[in-house]
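Fold it.
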Amino acid sequence: MPKYQFSCQVSPQYLPEQSAPDQGIYSFSYTVTVTNTGDVVAQLISRHWVISDANGLNEEVKGLGVVGQQPLLRPGESFQYTSGSRLRTASGTMHGSYFCVAEDGERFEALIPMFVLEAAHPDGSGTAKARVLH
């Protein structure tokens, strides 16, 4: 029986030069690596993100593809892209999923584990370290 599976890894980063904390604007970039860990060629068709700030404000983002592309991945292949998000608080979380279709027509979802967006790390570096929440 074929295995339909994409895995996702995310590396977030705080962007102090694009932020204005005194105005409640905290900008982040995140780099996502999507890998076809299944055994069937499949295409990423659309995305669904849930972005939450520290005040509990949730925003949903849905759309076709990622950064204007709908990558087709053979088993073992990866696609990496960088995008961004803004929060009104110094920390928050993101998680979501990708809707995918295999070359044999099978549809499946690839889950994007929740990760933390932090404007400053406790070590004072000002860069967020990737933390996946389980």
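The two ends are 29 Å apart (CA to CA).
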